[in-house]
Amino acid sequence: MKKFLILSVIILGTWMSVGVGAAETVDRSMCVFDPSGAHGDVFKAAQRYQAQALTWGIRLDLKAYTDEVVANSDFKAGKCNMAFLTSLRVRSYVHESGSIEAIGALPSYDLLRKTIEALSNPKVRELNTDGDYETMAMFPGGAVYLLLRDKNLKDIKDLAGRKIATLTYDQAATTMVDIVGASMVPAEIATFAGIFNNGRADACYSPAIGIKPLELMKGISPNGGIVRFPIGQLTFQIVARHKDFAEGFGNTSRAWAATQFDAMLSLTKKAEQEIPAKYWIEVPKDLQKNYFEKFREVRIRLRDKKVYHPTILKLMKRVRCSADKEAAECADNLE
Amino acid sequence: MNKRIFFFVTIVTITLANCSIVYRVTGKTLNSYAQDHLVPFYLASDDLDAICTGGTALGPLVASFERTGASVELATMVAQMGAGMCAEKQAQEAELLYIAAVRKGKGEEALDHQARQIRYHGVAAKRYGDAHTRFLQYFGEWNGKCPSISEDEELYYLVGLSSGLLAILHDFASQGYAGITRDVPSVVAGASRCLDPKKWWGTPLALEAVVWLSVPGATPEGKDPIKQMEEAVKIGDKEGVRLARAFQIQAAAGKGDVEKIKKLILEHSKVLSQIPAKKEYRFLEAFAENLSRHESDKIWMKETGHRGPINFSSFPGKKKNNKEEDDLLKDL
Questions:
Q1: What ranges does the record give for the region Disordered, renumbered to this chain (chain B) (predicted)?
Q2: pTM for the full predicted model
Q3: Lowest model confidence (mean pLDDT) among B19-33, B142-156, B213-227, B290-304
Q4: Which of A47, A56, A66 sits opposite B114 (nearest CB)?
Q5: At what angle do helices A285-304 and A171-180 cross, to 10 degrees?
């Protein structure tokens, strides 16, 4: 009897320790796209997320990818439970959150912050879910700017008939090129800088963080510049299959991610401050209106093509109008 | 009385003037001593801890002679490079503890080690960044044309470029804490072409390739960074200074390909036992070894919860082929 008791205690103890251990942390994996790989800022952010997720009972195994197409297809094939991707790719899983990068919708970081904070509110979980997928976090990746070889083209109308180096998989960019009447020079991330610097295109677009490492100053010197009017906000998002995570995980995760806004933007802000003032092209108010209207035309066309989600466009318009109630668009009903 | 005051003022003036002369001469002496003896002595030592502690302690002293008008850029650059390694070692230590905490599922511990790791990366970035700034002060800002570099200065030129690359890597890891200029990668890639790769153990080729591999879109048409890196490693292996390997493993670590990292680490370990290190440059060898050892320890820590062998010569074993062993032991 005594032996039996001891044996029972041992068995129970072993079972308890295994059981409790398993309840403490669950193993999950995340495919992380960072153009600079494991040394890059996005991967470092993924590591901060990894440490944070432990406190929510998830132990994440991270895998770095320098090619987003591969990271995306591995996630799609179920090789990882989560993926850290650009919003452009996330859009094919969660239509709503992937629409946050809509062209020209958020011309300042404050507006982007407000939008990300609003979307992290537990009341709108459904705006972060789509079928089996859920967006667990959103981080700013930096505003995308238009770079010109000739600064006299600073009105968007001047781009008609000009050549723009365009990422072919980016539907928003190809639509914009079409609407402003420019012609497209097909490019990839690995080739656009060379195309622009060698004069094969009159314009290209890039976040500030790419300008110095890719030596894009060669293309904008001596007569060009960088148009200080964000054409879009690059965002990195974490997308997951929600069945792999406990209920409520998404709300916790999004709330934490929203607090990381400034930390994620620090490298971008530094890169923007580092660009010599002479390279920036300030856009006068009346010309800003032209940019805004063209971009809105692109957004509406892409909304009608089901590329951008109407609810998110509406939310972003509300965010803009909360900051500037007098804006003309606040009285219309286009978005 | 007036005479006395005049005499006193004269004495003080002469003393002060002499002091500034003495200081400046001391600074110049220190600088040339550093270049003639201290740096070669440093380079021949494989004691990273001693060098990094020495750099941290002596850096401010050496740099302070700038105030006397002495030019001490090169000596300060080497000292700051050593100081950067101290912070880098601390960051590596914190990173290993962070990996261990993740393995154990300890969230708060992981967050704290990670916070320490980020801080040390920041310190390392500042120190390496300072070394790189001294390099630019001495050789002039990079404008696309090679400066005239004497035979004796070439090694400093190489150290200055390497410190720039290390500064930017650590700055990324510290969320831009040190604010290292984003010009560094293109400066390193361009300026590394000013050195003869054969003479400097393939390192200039490795520096250029590591920039191409880390900055998407930076590789010029018709160039293959991976092939160039392999060529650099081959030269370094033959010469007994395997600094190129350190950059090759860093680049592979960036790509996150664990199998490739393991393969390169094992190759590095093997070549160490085959070809002796060049005596005059044992320090650079030790630096490269430390990087490989750290990458090896990271893999060990993640897979087993502890560090690996000091000579990074193996990885946690795959499952043994039990059937084969059973056959061997049959009927014994």
A1: 310-332
A2: 0.86
A3: B19-33
A4: A47
A5: 120
